[in-house]
Amino acid sequence: MFWIYAGVLAVAAALFVLLPMWNFHRRGVQKMARREHANLLIFQERMAELEAERASGTLEEENFQALTRELERSLLSDVTAAREKVEASVEAHPGFFTKARVIPLVMVAFIVPVSIGLYQQWGYEDDLELASLFERSSEVSDDPQAIRDLIFEIGAIIERDNQNGWAMYLLGQNLANIGLFAESSSALERAAALIEQPQDKVSVLGQHAFLEFMLAEQVITDKVQGIIDQAQLIDPNQFLILQVQALDAERRQDHQAAITYWRRIAQQTPAGPDMDEVNARIASAQQALAGGGEPAAAPEPTGAQVQVQVSLAEGLALPEGTRVFVSALEVNGRGQPLAARVLNLEDLPVTLTLSDADAVGPFNLSSAENIYVVATASSSGTANVQSGDYQVRSDGFARAEAPALVPLVIADRVP
Fold first, then answer.
1. What pTM, to 2 d.p., does this model score?
2. Which fold does the domain 305-413 belong to in CATH?
3. φ, ψ at 220 (rounded to 5°)
4. How far is CA 45 from CA 32, 71, 76, 217, in A?
5. Are residues 263 and 283 in contact, defined by beta-carbon separation less than 8 angstroms?
6. Residue 40, Cβ neighbours under 10 Å: how many?
7. For helices 255-266 and 273-290, what crossing angle results, to 10°?
8. C-alpha distances in angstroms, 261 versus 94, 232, 242, 247?
9. Torsion 280-282-288-294 (CA) sign
10. Between β-strands 406-410 and 305-312, what pairing exists: parallel, antiparallel or unpaired?
11. Per-residue pLDDT tens over the stretch 188-221
């Protein structure tokens, strides 16, 4: 369909050049014909006047004949002069292939090949092809042979452009569909390195972490933890990362951590079978934590918690959609947040509570004696602070003696 539209546009472009040339070629002949027609009308009108005068007796026959001959000579003189002018123009520009015609014709001839060449150089042919392959991937997910064919087509795109992150991602998806999980993991790793948009990147990181976690027999290895750390710098609540952490906590029988992770997953899960499964896992972990019997009631976040009020400084204007990261960290401790929440700029001002339920790793608020709170308005959309972001941080305080409310007013630009 694309090439049909392209062909129609090329023909239209050619007509914009050829039609004026055709009209210009015919203009001289048409002008001469109009002039001859006008002279003939004038001759006929004048002859009619002379004949009327002769009939009425006001013009003698001798004068009538003299005036008629004069009219005929005048008509013949005008027609001859016009033809000589056209013939002189033709002699001055002999043949069809004059300079005024050859240049436009050459331009028309090069429209299609030059357009195709420029499109192949700067166009989005691979992206259009990749979009089609995405659609086909969802249609043939249960057909191994069709998936293999897709893999070869995706490979051709990667061969032309080995920096195409989305082609790598689609390759990883299709490799996983036919059970080549190790190869799929390698493709997802490459895709995550190439894709720059934060929300897309963290989604790929989540899938990569989950696949590596399963390949490691549901153990968080150093490699898996490295992927988790990358993802949490962008989004501490990435769904698949939380699922990996929840499953790992279940394997280690760390039921409290499992409950925390499953609750955070529940906040992102719509009502339905998936939500029922999450609730069942929470109930199972609560029952195990209670030592058997009936499932224990869901405890509210207590103990280690900090209430924070986040707002923008008066007069500070930031782009719509800016993401705001609020996190609590240990004073003179690890750089990884003990608890974190992600907000949108439109949510401010807001008062929220950070607790152990907001942990983003193996350590939570209860694991630290002294903490401080940071709020960052990120221009890049990631939790990794960069130059140009706006940030505010509180003074350190003892976690057990946390103030009733920690005010954070975002005002200072990160140099």
1. 0.54
2. Immunoglobulin-like (2.60.40)
3. -80, 95
4. 20, 11, 16, 107
5. no
6. 13
7. 160
8. 87, 14, 6, 9
9. negative
10. parallel
11. 999 999 998 888 999 999 999 999 998 888 889 9
Residue 101 makes CB contacts below 8 A (sequence gap 6+) with 21
Contacts of 254 (CB under 8 A, 6+ apart): none
Instruction: Please count the other Cβ atoms lying within 10 Å of the Cβ belonging to residue 204.
Output: 25
Q: Give the mean pLDDT of the chain.
A: 80
The two tokens of residue 63 are 């004068």
> CA 276 to CA 259: how far, in whole Å?
14
Class in CATH terms, 146-290: mainly alpha
Comparing C-alpha atoms, which of 343, 384, 335, 389 is closest to residue 361? 335
Q: State how far the Cα of 379 lies from the Cα of 323, in Å rounded to an integer.
A: 8
User: Any idea where the domains of the chain sit in the sequence?
Assistant: 2-122, 146-290, 305-413
Let me know if 219 is exposed, middle or buried by CB neighbors in 10 A (0-12, 13-18, 19+).
Answer: middle
Q: Are 269 and 278 in contact (CB under 8 A)?
A: yes
What pLDDT, in 10s, does the model give residues 234-271?
Answer: 888 898 999 999 999 988 888 888 888 898 888 888 87
